[in-house]
Specification:
This protein has 66 residues and is mainly α. The protein has one domain. The relative contact order is 0.13. Helix 1 packs across helix 2. The chain has two helices and no strands.
Length: 66
């Protein structure tokens, strides 16, 4: 159960990044883009991506490690 919740939270964070990127693209197209700088922990993001992909890989019989 804990793994499922962690995957869901990591997926949610990544989806938010994707939506924000799409919104930024729309603003660029409309000529109304303003850059917002934020702090991002690259190591944590990679861990979250690996968590999602590791689960998918295990379902396919592949072992991922970081």
């Amino acid at each position: 159960m804990k793994l499922s919740l962690e995957i869901q939270l990591a997926s949610t964070k990544l989806l938010i990044y994707l939506v924000n990127d799409l919104l930024s693209f729309a603003q660029i197209s409309a000529g109304k883009f303003r850059k917002e700088i934020s702090v991002m922990d690259v190591r944590q993001t990679v861990k979250e991506v690996m968590l999602i992909q590791k689960h998918k890989a295990l379902m396919m019989g592949i072992e991922l490690s970081l």
